[in-house]
Amino acid sequence: MQAAAARLDYEPDPVARALRMRMSPFVGIVVPDITIPFFGIAVKAAQDVLEEAGYQVLIVNTHRDGLRERDALKTLLSSRAQGVLLATYGGYEPSLRLPHVFFANFAEAATAPRIALSNRDGIRALVDHLVGHGHERIAYVGGMPGNTSGSERLAAFSEAMAAAGLGARALTGLSDADWSVESSQRATTELLALDDPPTAFVAGSDNFALGTLKAIRTSGRRIPEDVALVAFQDPDRVGGILEPALTTLVSQEEELGAQAASLLLQGLSRSELLVSGIEVRLPARLVIRRSCGCE
Amino acid sequence: MQAAAARLDYEPDPVARALRMRMSPFVGIVVPDITIPFFGIAVKAAQDVLEEAGYQVLIVNTHRDGLRERDALKTLLSSRAQGVLLATYGGYEPSLRLPHVFFANFAEAATAPRIALSNRDGIRALVDHLVGHGHERIAYVGGMPGNTSGSERLAAFSEAMAAAGLGARALTGLSDADWSVESSQRATTELLALDDPPTAFVAGSDNFALGTLKAIRTSGRRIPEDVALVAFQDPDRVGGILEPALTTLVSQEEELGAQAASLLLQGLSRSELLVSGIEVRLPARLVIRRSCGCE
DNA sequence: CTGAAAGCGCTTACAG
DNA sequence: CTGAAAGCGCTTACAG
């Protein structure tokens, strides 16, 4: 009977199976914006690991909308998804009864595993490098402190400047909530219009690096001769054609995605890990190119 | 009773509902590579339209693997998805019993609605513009002719060159199947190493524009003084910081995604549309910037 | 009009 | 060990 079924390549109906067994083959990946290079690449890497393990991956894009995020989580739960990788943007509720791992953006109080870049170490490395070049009036162009990446990087900038004795010379230009090129361009333009404008910029993301670069260039200033620029992420990851090449932290999108997926897989087989509060940070490493003034 | 249920905000279990009603709230979007900017943006736009209409969107990334695509389609079908937006890459089978609309890449013989950029018109506009600048030895750096975008653009290049009386001076450098920056860089470098290298390049996609630009620059040539460059898509859509700014076709990722979604929605309410063979092409329009030699 | 029953396609616990 | 029955949570067609 079973042999006959196999020969006719019978496949059980997954919906009926999900109803009866209270579980589906799905794992969700929920991100605020799939068009941001960072998330696109991380999602792809995570998907590879999860498919390898036999799960069917469903990607959900929340457009940075907490309600959409909550709906997506609810849908995944009621679809009997096995778990979810979540870069939260306001829609998370601690009562979520679905195995989950946070990546990039956490809910602070949650006990689920979390993995992210070393926001603080990375920003400090960037600031310290600029300080080493002799810069004192340094500006940070970054995201609003409404999520983990935004908050940690902004706080780290203040701390690093204070530690360098430059707290009073720190400037901050926050972008809109959409982490877009345009918003960082506006913020940078405003900072450059100050009476005593910064001599160096730290861009808090890949998109922000583009916007900051564009604004500096539009103002007629040269990089790095007139203004130095370093960035938390490399906006030019695949191209390598920006001029000047940007000093950034080394790209870790793939590692982040793959390790987030691994954490979830581990959690699915050992459920105590899912409430362990484990936190993984990928070590930050600086890649020195031309925009900081080296060479 | 119903009132009581509403007050307790009871929600029917979607899995049981799907089993009983033979349909779920899902619509799938299946793409070869979500990290390619073109697909990321188109998917996001399509998702907006579909969610607005009340569907839950599931994005599936096939990594340009026909088997993964087939599996994804099978999973969507057996999960009782209502329909799917498909940028196919080899996994489509005509027997697919799931309402579907092709976007960007078709199966030639299929009768499902299809929507794409005007590959032929676009390439012709690019070639004609270079011819107008006096170029005769023109090279095309594009994708393998294994899918709609690759085939049509390649064919259009040959046709446009022939129509300009330059058939014998047409050069073609095909990238690897992954449509990556690196592969187009290699192809361009080979073309530039010829005894009689091209004086102008047509890049067949956003990523290819980056690779071609990089290779030309690496060879020590200036754009557009030594070599002209135009591209089918704008790799610099959000940034606008490439130097020189590239002459490309106008970006239509959003329109493509949104209209593909609309076609599917129409098809879901009027099923005869799903086998109508409707084909939509977004009109190509040239945006002249600096890399072609204008100004 | 209301309410109990059948059945969507499975899996598992149980009877034989 | 094999096979029929129960039940996952719904919706719909049917009996009352």
Layout of SSEs?
2 copies of one chain form a homodimer.
Chain A: H1 2-7, H2 14-21, E1 26-31, H3 37-52, E2 56-61, H4 66-78, E3 83-86, E4 100-103, E5 114-117, H5 119-132, E6 138-142, H6 148-163, E7 170-174, H7 181-192, E8 200-203, H8 206-218, E9 228-231, E10 247-249, H9 253-269, E11 279-282, E12 286-287
Parallel strand pairs in A: 1-2, 1-3, 3-4, 4-5, 5-11, 6-7, 6-8, 8-9, 9-10
Antiparallel strand pairs in A: 10-12
Helix pairs in contact in A: 3-9, 5-6, 7-8
The structure holds a DNA duplex (16 and 16 nucleotides).
Please report which band the strand proportion of chain A falls in: under 5%, 5-15%, 15-25%, 25-35%, 35-45% or over 45%: 15-25%
Give the helix level of chain A as a range of percent: 25-40%
Instruction: Please provide the count of β strands of chain A.
Output: 12
Assign the CATH topology of the largest domain in chain A. Rossmann fold
What is the chain-wise order of helices and strands of chain A? HHEHEHEEEHEHEHEHEEHEE
* Overall pLDDT confidence of chain A: 93
Radius of gyration of chain A: 22 Å
Overall, the morphology of chain A is: elongated
Number of domains of chain A: 2
> Largest protein interface?
A-B, 49 and 49 residues
Unreliably modeled segments of chain A: none
